[in-house]
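yo, Fibronectin type-III domain-containing protein is done. seq:
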Amino acid sequence: MLVSSITDTGAVVTWETDEPATSQVMICDPGEVCSWTEPDETLVTNHSVTLSDLDPNTSYHLTLISEDESENETTYERDFTTSAQADTTAPVISGVEVSATTDIKATIEWSTDEEATSQVKYGTTDAYGLTTTLDEHLTTSHSLTLTDLEADTTYHFRVKSKDTSGNETTSDA
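structure:
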């Protein structure tokens, strides 16, 4: 028996029998709540059942049931776990502020709701033009210092953070 194509909400179960038989799967969650797939009455030796509507990152117990035309039943059992739900949400940036300014440097601080990288785009126009080196240290409290600034000059900036799943967000201008 093989459980393949495992996602956060489904999987494909395949198995073989030594003679033509029907296909059905009983699936039980950790709370031992069980459900059945629709029986496939087609007599085959290579069986395939697609499981769907499962919960992410959950262990399931499967009982595969095949019955030949003489009603002899064979069962196979197996446990498997669905994958974790994919993170598709970018970090939320908040509390962006400028602190510790001097004539030639400024520190930009912000927070994110999940651990993420830190980077600042900045420049003397809202086209920015300059970008700090990416700080790959994952944190929720970010702080980067801009150096070599020109005295008595207005700078525009945006902060940018990326989480471990590659979801990126940039603050408003």
